[in-house]
Amino acid sequence: MKSVMVYCEVENQKVADISQELLSAGKRLAQKLGCPLEAMIFGSSLNGIENQIAPFGVDRLFVGNSMRLEPYRTLPHAALASKILKEEDPQIVLFGATSVGRDLAPRLASVLNCGLTADCTILDIGDHLVKKEKKEYKDLLYAIRPAFGGSIMANIINWDMHPQMATVREGVMKKEIFDEHYATEIVEVDVNAVLKEEDFVVKIIDRQIKESGVNLKDAPIIVAGGYGVGSRENFDLLVELAQLLGGEVGGSRAAVDAGFIEHNRQIGQTGTTVRPKLYIAAGISGAIQHTAGMQDASMIISINNDPDAPINKIADYVIHGDLGVVVPKMIKFYKQNAK
Ligand code: FAD
């Protein structure tokens, strides 16, 4: 029976957010196909790890539990994943577009000779008529992603390779619990029977993890500035407003390129995808590559001196004016009125 399979990333017994987002996306696909959702996870000390996976509606979980599987190394993970994929033969396989997923997925696509669509923003199921063959293929993965610099959304359909594989960027899919008490069948993978000594030729001598200290993805409020902010100094106003509101500061790529703000605060197609309760866009025009990363905010306020700025079309409130005047007033009145 066909299935949807998700490769889950784990570190220190914590399943990655992206993997849980993918499980939610995978569950929706599996429901459309009327097939099971499966997942695989490889790491160390994974007893009880199913508690972080089962609630997303996973029917079967393959667990490779060994000290030698964490931290991630390409060869052992690829060997285990390719064995499971060959045996289970899923219809669809999903990976995070993380450094791990970007390393592992192409290798597996090559081993399975099946192709891969990278950095998808929408996943769906549909049919496709191949005119040359006069044949309609049913229940295919629609792997949808921006292409040509974001000017079009390309729907990439792979009807003659199997399985259909895709990577998805972090924050794009919504994490949704399916059933807190979902019964998941656990399949212990016999790691030692699969892995050979040559899978461990790469030795990890040292690992240094630097926390960026920026958490745009989970921020409930984001004050974002664009090229219209004009300078790094002017960005201080946005920082002040964000701090006052208990939010984070973000920026457009033009603001990052101009050196007004650090790259790890960029929002959009090539930055972070965010879904805050409130998104204040100051001096941002609203190019598609920017809105792709913030259009799901619950409320958007645009501050712009151009009444026709494209961002105004998706904004709930538009403040037409010079941000150098508007933002200090917002700070002043918020301070006056906040209890
Ligand atoms: P502009 O488009 O220059 O807009 C500035 C805005 O500020 C204007 O609307 C103007 O009216 C307003 N303004 C000016 N002065 C004031 C003032 N004093 N008060 C109020 N308003 C004022 N962009 C991203 O943001 N994120 C991405 O991830 C991203 N990825 C990309 C990937 C690719 C492959 C490509 C080709 C582009 C990408 N871009 C991305 C760039 C994107 O196309 C736009 O160039 C960028 O978003 C524009 O940034 P901006 O809105 O800050 O600048």
Automatic annotation (TrEMBL):
SMART domains: ETF. Binds 1 FAD per dimer. It holds the Pfam family ETF. Keywords: Electron transport, FAD, Flavoprotein, Transport. SUPFAM superfamilies: Adenine nucleotide alpha hydrolases-like (SSF52402), DHS-like NAD/FAD-binding domain (SSF52467). Residues 4-204 form the Electron transfer flavoprotein alpha/beta-subunit N-terminal domain. FAD binds at residues 252-253, 266-270, 283-290, 304. InterPro entries: DHS-like_NAD/FAD-binding_dom, ETF_a/b_N, ETF_a/FixB, ETF_alpha_N, ETF_asu_C, Rossmann-like_a/b/a_fold. GO terms for molecular function: electron transfer activity; flavin adenine dinucleotide binding. The keyword Transport applies. Gene3D superfamilies: HUPs, TPP-binding domain. CDD domains: ETF_alpha. Its cofactor is FAD. GO terms for biological process: fatty acid beta-oxidation using acyl-CoA dehydrogenase. It comes from the Bacteria. Belongs to the ETF alpha-subunit/FixB family. This is Electron transfer flavoprotein alpha subunit apoprotein. It comes from Lutibacter maritimus. The lineage of its organism: Bacteria, Pseudomonadati, Bacteroidota, Flavobacteriia, Flavobacteriales.
